[in-house]
Amino acid sequence: MISIYCSEKLDGVAGAAIVMRHATLNKLPTHFGGFLHLDALEDELEDMAKREHQLIFVIDVSITPDHIPLLEKVNKKNKIVYWNTHDEESVVPPSKLFDKSQGNKCSAELAQQRFLPNDIIAKKLAELAHEVKFWQIQDEHAAKLSDLITAQYNPVELIDALSRGVIWNEHFEKFYTNHLEKKNIAYEELIKSLTVKSYVNYRFGFAYSSPILNTADACQKILDGHAGVDVAVVLYRDGRIGLRRRDNCDVNVKKLAELFNGGGKPFAAGARLKVQITKETLPETLFHIDEAFKNFFVGIPVP
């Protein structure tokens, strides 16, 4: 049995759908194993290791050397067949096949080129994932599918539909419409919480977001709504931090995310604090982030 795991993002979901399509076309039994998250990866890999006789495919997940022993444990009763990631700094996992992005390729594109290079549906899924990954939205379905994932639409149904070439349907639309109403309210609350701080010649906009908004949408809302902000920083209750810079800004936000053991791209990155962020603790959290950013911009190492 093929078991597919992926990141909880459109890049991962689209890549999982491509792998599922490849398996279905070849009449191979397959199912969705679950989402993997960098901040919870150790526990998730422990759960994966409890499975037996699975052919495992992992899409859009980055690992560190600390994860290797757990992956070797997974391989004792299963076989990791394929792993890919868009993170150029990820270490190589103990898998039969491994694809790592070089340049502007997302994980879904890596899966499409590996398994279904000439399939029209797979190409479309890869294009949608690329648009979201690199903030180049051309097809509205890319943003809407990303919203479905953020709103926790049933991943089994979503991946199955995408693997069959169903990019959008009435069930998706009904769920999305309901989500959109909540999203608009969340946008209003986001902007109300906005605080602007300056570092050297750059202005950062900090805001507290509902989990209904993904980091891409929340950051873009701040940049669109405040012309004076060069970098948007969004904080979530679960400790997540998302950063996004304007196109004409040269701040490497990946370096800022690394201050909190995060990562990403120079133009968009993220991290997760080890504490929950509530409206009550937000001022204290902002103080610590502010201090870290000040030290970064004046060249003082952060302890």
Key attributes of the depicted protein:
single chain, 303 residues, alpha/beta, Rossmann fold, Diaminopimelate Epimerase, Chain A, domain 1, 2 domains, 5-stranded parallel sheet, 20% strand
Describe it for me?
With 303 residues, the chain is α/β, with parallel strands linked by helices. It is built from eleven helices and eleven strands. It folds into two domains: 2-168, 3-Layer(aba) Sandwich (Rossmann fold), CATH 3.40.50; 187-298, Diaminopimelate Epimerase, Chain A, domain 1. It has a six-stranded mixed sheet, with helices on both faces. A five-stranded parallel sheet has the order 2-1-3-4-5, with helices on both faces. Helix 2 runs parallel beside helix 3, helix 4 (107-115) runs antiparallel to helix 5 (120-133) and helix 5 (120-133) crosses helix 6. The protein is globular, with a radius of gyration of 20 Å. The N and C termini lie far apart (47 Å).
Question: How are the SSEs placed, and which strands pair?
Answer:
Layout: E1 2-7, H1 10-25, E2 30-36, H2 41-49, E3 55-59, H3 68-77, E4 79-85, E5 97-100, H4 107-115, H5 120-133, H6 140-150, H7 155-163, H8 170-192, E6 195-199, E7 202-209, H9 215-225, E8 231-236, E9 240-245, H10 253-258, E10 263-264, E11 268-272, H11 282-298
Parallel strand pairs: 1-2, 1-3, 3-4, 4-5, 7-8
Antiparallel strand pairs: 6-7, 8-9, 9-11, 10-11
Decide which structural class fits the backbone: alpha/beta
Uncertain stretches: none
For the largest beta-sheet, the strand count, sense and barrel status come to: 6 strands, mixed
Number of helical segments? 11
CATH architecture of the largest domain: 3-Layer(aba) Sandwich
Shape: globular
Question: What is the level 1 CATH name of the largest domain?
Answer: Alpha Beta
* Mean pLDDT score: 94
The percent range for strand residues is 15-25%
- Beginning-to-end CA distance, first to last residue: 47 Å
Number of domains: 2
SSE sequence, one letter per element: EHEHEHEEHHHHHEEHEEHEEH
How much helix, percentage-wise, in residues? 40-55%
Radius of gyration, taken over Cα atoms and rounded to an integer in Å: 20 Å
Q: If you consult CATH, what is the topology of the largest domain?
A: Rossmann fold
Within the largest sheet, what's the order of strands? 6-7-8-9-11-10
Care to count the β-strands? 11
